[in-house]
Write a structure and sequence with these properties.
The protein is of the alpha+beta class and about 200 residues long. It is about 30% helix and about 25% strand.
């Protein structure tokens, strides 16, 4: 193995270990999330390459739901491949220091807001089969975080998006409303002085 290959292998091992440690330490809020937590850990233990796009067809990913300061709006991206509105996120890269760093990188790259502060706690887990042109990747096991955009922050459309737009949390886009509503509620519950209402 070349020195570069060895470094990349070490990076994937570090990310794999970080994902396992975070999931083992996380207290799921309900039985459904606990089931997903166990599934994610089983998948990681069965696949040492689960963090890499070159790994099994089910990939670990990291994402961030971005809210405004009052928690009344969510910043979403119209994904170029999926053609649906989602939170920001994607695959891990060897240069990522941790699962949280990867999710933060994705949020900053895809939102165009360079100083988004991502909260350190896992907010939610989600497992979904992919529909569309995603190559060998057939399923995402997504570790989700939350962030609050700085006041006055200006977003920008990235190469991976068709559009980036603020949506009222009580009027989320129809196509992904069912998936986004629980994520937004979980994120809002972490905001100071907020509940899941």
């Amino acid at each position: 193995m070349t020195p570069a290959g060895a470094r990349e292998s070490d990076s994937w091992r570090r990310l794999h270990g970080d994902a396992v440690a975070r999931l083992e330490a996380w207290t799921a809020p309900d039985e459904q999330q606990e089931q997903l937590r166990r599934e994610f850990l089983d998948h990681l233990r069965a696949h040492p390459d689960a963090m890499s796009k070159g790994g099994p067809s089910a990939h670990l990913t990291g994402s961030v739901i971005v809210l405004d300061e009052p928690g009344t709006s969510a910043l979403l991206t119209l994904h170029r491949k999926a053609r649906e509105w989602f939170q920001f996120g994607g695959h891990f890269e060897p240069r990522d220091a941790s699962v949280w760093h990867a999710a933060t990188r994705e949020a900053r790259e895809e939102s165009g807001i360079p100083d988004i502060p991502v909260l350190p706690e896992i907010v939610q887990l989600d497992r979904h089969v992919l529909v569309g042109a995603f190559g060998t990747c057939r399923e995402h096991l997504d570790i989700r975080f939350a962030a609050v955009a700085p006041a006055g922050a200006r977003s920008a459309v990235s190469a991976e998006s068709i559009d980036v737009r603020w949506w009222p949390v009580d009027a989320l886009p129809d196509g992904t409303k069912g998936e986004l509503r629980p994520l937004v509620a979980a994120a809002r519950a972490l905001l100071p002085g907020r509940t899941q209402g």
